[in-house]
């Protein structure tokens, strides 16, 4: 099962790239601040995902 932290990290990375593209295409409308903020949020959730311990299932035959 996929971790919610990984999903949130990927969603925020998509938002980050969207803000970056908008800031390039429309420099007067979108500034670089939202890009940086969403990048930090994405990194935060990715670090939380990496800290999670994987659940190990022990199978006995």
Summarize the structure.
By secondary structure, the chain is mostly helical. It has helices at residues 4-25, 33-51.
Radius of gyration, rounded? Answer: 17 Å
Which bin fits the share of residues in helices?
Answer: 55-70%
- Low-confidence parts: none
Fraction in beta strands: under 5%
Mean pLDDT: 85
Structural class computed from helices and strand pairing:
mainly alpha
Q: End-to-end distance, in Å?
A: 24 Å
List the helices and strands in order: HH
As for the number of domains, it is 1
Strand elements, count: 0
The biggest sheet amounts to: none
Oligomer: single chain
Which secondary structure elements does this structure contain, and how are they paired or packed?
Elements lengths: L3 H22 L7 H19 L10
Keywords: Membrane, Transmembrane, Transmembrane helix
How does this model look, in words?
The chain is mostly helical and 61 residues long. Helices cover 67% and strands 0% of the residues. The protein is built from two helices and no strands. The chain has helices at residues 4-25, 33-51. Helix 1 runs antiparallel to helix 2. The longest helix has 22 residues, at 4-25.
Keyphrases for this structure?
61 residues, mainly alpha, 67% helix
